Model the fold of this input.
Amino acid sequence: MSSCKDFFEVLYLDCAVSHTVPISASEIDKYYTESIAAELGLTRSEFSAIVADVITHSFPGDLARDGSQVLAGLHWDDLVLARACARGYETAWNQFLALYRTKLYGAAIAITKDDSLARELADSLYADLFGTGVRADGRRVSKLESYMGRGSLEGWLRTVLAQAYVNRFRSQRKFVRFDETMERNTAAGTDEPDCTVEQAQVARATDAALAGLSSGERLLLAAYYLDGRTLAEIGRMLALHESTVSRRLEKVTATLRKRIIAKLKTSGISKGEAEKLLELDVRDLAVDVRRSLAQERQAGTF
Amino acid sequence: MSNLPEFVRSRLALRQTPLDEHPDANLLLAFAERELSARANTVVLVHLERCAECREILALSMPESAAALPELQKHGPAWQAWRWPAAALAGVIATALLATVMLAPRRLSTSPATVQPPAPSRTAPPSTPVAAKAAAPVPRKKTVARAKWKDTAPALAQVEQPILETPPLIIPRMGFQSLDTATATSNPVQASMKRLVDASIVAPGRNSIWRIEENGTLSKSQDGNAWMTVRVGQHTRLYALSVNGGEVWAGGADGGLFHSTDDGANWRQVEVRGASGAHLTDTITKINSTPQRALELTTNSGAVWVSFDGRLWRQQ
Done:
């Protein structure tokens, strides 16, 4: 580990993600003394190894832009607590349990809305945090080692819980969401060669208008109209006030509609026709097709 | 909310393509907690607009607002209980001050020969701004706080701070200052708890102006207009602040005390422990730097802790 310190002093830190972050031993010392690392039992060399790991696995774009600012913004106390737990320090575990045990179960209940499922989810995460596997060097493999201090430890625990929940849900729903498949097929119907010229034009205009929006605007639309999230939920996701979300949605929807109609008008379709086409429900069209197909089959039996 | 045409919705759904790679928990968390640079933020946004599963993870990982609120606010804002008594008291004070101002010229007019130009500053009635504030109609809460801050900011920026002699400047809202003073003498616990809810704490530093927000976070500003949240410690709700040049002390719930010597660039949590080993676990409601270069903490239970070096503490 002492070689790691020398490495910082002499060469600066050359990350595996092909960019160089200048961080000196004195900077590491500063973060070491200012965090609770020593109180938790972490040595300086262990701390240096943690810093190296964090820098190596941090988001490349951020570090290339302003590495020192990213390091200054890390949640050092949370980071050293998580890493000390991962290394099996008892003081750290006691502190972790005191701080997060109740919160973890609370978060699991908020996610699952079911007490027994919440316990199962939280217990499963506890096992991962504690580390069930063992490495070649004899150390346990703890999930806490993947926490990088880019945000609070509490928030990270909630995110990991949510991921575990969604993964489990996703593995189950593969077998049950027939309706979703139907819906996708129906929506994709406009790309099929038997759709009318007007429908193809509307599809192209809509795609162009959607592409002209920003990612944030499309995220708003997807969260509200596809996921069915409430304004309050979207507000929490994007750190916006509910009324701001509402205003932006109104604006994006209006802009989108205006752009689609403008695009259709350039294709020679009148405004009235464009508005009529826009209101066409593709699912109605699909139902009609299915109905006509069924009628054809019935006719064939005679 | 206006409706999105079903056709547009179906085209939007077509953009939801199954993706092989997803942001890990660190990246999603950094996005949620606004810790990413603009560039990295855009990368995550581009993924989220196409990935319903990551949107779901993000939504599920958000704390529900009710659960995130501290105990003080769960049962409704405490200041509401004081609204009407405070308004009545503010009215009485305004009337009294108005009467004082109106009576003063009459007394002078009885002997015009002896009329002297009013002495500047010291003898001028200090009540003028207070009276104006008390008599003014009470606008909405947020507007009041912002307007008062704007009025005060230029003055604060000019104040030179003697080392360790600056108590936090408390800017009251909704004419509560008189009520605070009145209750402080009769019930210090109630007064300090009410101050937690009703007062903004603002203090000028060497290069920055500091403020504790209503939600218990610390903010700093260079110009009094644009404010930036400053993280100190692990989610401690802050209630008290003391600033001397580049040295900043912030205190709050569960005895949380934080210290920065470089204008808030770096913070260290200070353990407040007496010689007997007793820890401070109450809420710190006031931090005062005394002329004897001591730091004085007042808690919501009325206890006062003093230290001369920030390490050894004594409960008075």
User: Anything to note?
Assistant: The longest strand of chain A covers residues 13-14.
